[in-house]
Amino acid sequence: MNEAVLIVLAYLIGSIPTSVWISKYFFEIDIRDYGSGNAGATNTFRILGSKWGTIVMVVDVVKGIIATSLYIVIPFYLAHEHIPERTKIMIGLGLAAVLGHIFPIWAGFRGGKGVATLFGMIIAMQPAVALCCVGVFLLVLYLTRFVSLSSILAGVAFAILILFIFDDDVTLYRVFSVLVALMVVLTHQKNINRLINGTESKVPILKYRDRRRQRRRGE
């Protein structure tokens, strides 16, 4: 199985429209007809609740992990761990999955923004960096309950970590990290505008914390 076939397979894995299938099967709606119109975890959190939003997010992350790890079927890449060629094929596979998530062949090429699948790709490539990005994401989410803002800052943190903290010496990976940060910002332009205008919706998590705060303010 050569690299081109793996790239196509990675795209097909990324194309699995998790939120669309869940919304149609369990709720008889198309998630893309509601909220932001996006077929991603954020809109699923907003429309279907935290349970289904979490499921969509986890599955979309796993898509990225599986697709990026397809290189293991080629003995050359499996036997040579620390070579630029392996990094290149992993980036190619991961980006194919992200592209599939954004333009899924199984759902009329109308998908999500690819952040969760991109994160799965990072987990497969460099788990320590992924863990740091998770920390940034969860901290921002806890403080603000904006998944969009959490995703944006986690994407920017990824570039900072690769360029300055972990100081990866593979040039392609360094360039990739900058492109990731730019892609996350660009695909969240509408969210950024809503954040600036104060109209961005918060996800329905930590609601008990918010209720306690409201009660304290009313006392």
Which short descriptors sum up this protein?
single chain; 219 residues; 0% strand
Report on the architecture of this protein.
This protein has helices spanning 3-14, 18-27, 41-48, 50-68, 75-79, 84-102, 115-125, 127-144, 147-165, 171-187, 189-197, 207-218. The protein has one domain. It is an all-alpha fold and 219 residues long. α1 runs parallel beside α6 (84-102) and α3 packs antiparallel against α4 (50-68). The chain is built from twelve helices and no strands. It is globular, with a radius of gyration of 18 Å. The mean pLDDT is 88.
Output mean pLDDT. 88
N to C succession of SSEs: HHHHHHHHHHHH
Distance between the first and last residues' Cα: 67 Å
Please give the oligomerization state of what you see. Answer: single chain
Characterize the main sheet. none
Structural category: mainly alpha
The total count of helices amounts to 12
Counted beta strands:
0
- Overall 3D form: globular
Low-confidence stretches: none
Strand content of the residues, in percent?
A: under 5%
Helix content percent band: over 70%
Please tell me the total number of domains: 1
What is Rg? 18 Å
Question: What's the helix and strand layout?
Answer:
Layout: H1 3-14, H2 18-27, H3 41-48, H4 50-68, H5 75-79, H6 84-102, H7 115-125, H8 127-144, H9 147-165, H10 171-187, H11 189-197, H12 207-218
Helix pairs in contact: 1-4, 1-6, 3-4, 4-6, 4-7, 6-7, 7-8, 8-9, 9-10
Question: Quick recap of the structure?
Answer:
Helix content is 73%, strand content 0%.
